[in-house]
Amino acid sequence: MIRFLLSRLLTLLVTAFALTFIVFFLTNLEPSLEKIAKSEIGTRVSDAEVESWLDRNGYGEPMLVRYGEWLGVVPGWTHTVDGEVVAGRCELPGGTVETSAFCGILQGDWGWSTVFRRDVAEIIGRSLALTGKLMFWVMMVMVPGALILGVLAGMREGSKLDRSLSTVSILTTATPEYVSGVVFIAVFASTAVGLRWFNGSATSAMEDATFENFTLPVLTIALYGMGYIARMTRASMTEVMTAQYIRTARLKGVSFPKIVLRHALRNALIAPFTVIMLQFPWLLNGVVIVETLFNYKGFGWTLVQAAGNNDIELLLGVSVVSVVVVLLTQLISDIGYVYLNPRIRVS
Amino acid sequence: MTDTVTDPALEVAPGEPILEIRNLSISFFTRTREIPAVMDFSATVRAGEALGLVGESGCGKSTVALGVMQDLGVNGRITGGSIKFRGEELTTMSPARLREIRGRDIAMIYQEPMASLNPALKIDRQLMEVPMIHEGISAEEARARALEVVRDVRLPDPERILDSYPHQLSGGQQQRIVIAMALMSKPALLILDEPTTALDVTVEAAVIDLVRELGEKYGTSMLFISHNLGLVLETCDRICVMYSGEAVERGRIGEVFDEMRHPYTQALFRAIPLPGADKATRPLIAIPGNFPLPDERPPGCNFGPRCDYFQEGRCDAQPIPMVEVPGDGHEARCIRTEEIDWDAPPEVSDHRESTEIGEVVLKVDGLQKYYQVSRPGLLGGGEAQVVKANETLSFEAHESETLAIVGESGCGKSTLAKVLMGLETATAGGVELDGRAVGDVPIEKRDTRTVADVQMVFQNPFDTLNPSMTVGRQIIRALEIFGVGDSPRDRKRRMLELLDLVKLPREFATRMPRQLSGGQKQRVGIARAFAGGARIVVADEPVSALDVSVQAAVTDLLMEIQREQKTTLLFISHDLSIVRYLADRVMVMYLGHVVEIGTAREVFSPPYHPYTEALLSAVPIADTHVEKKHIVLEGDVPSAMNPPSGCPFQTRCRWKSRVPGDLCEREVPPMVEFAPGHKVKCHLSQEEFASMEPVITLAEN
Question: I need a labelling partner for A83 at 20 to 30 A (CA). Which of A37, B202, B289, B698 fits?
Answer without folding.
Answer: A37
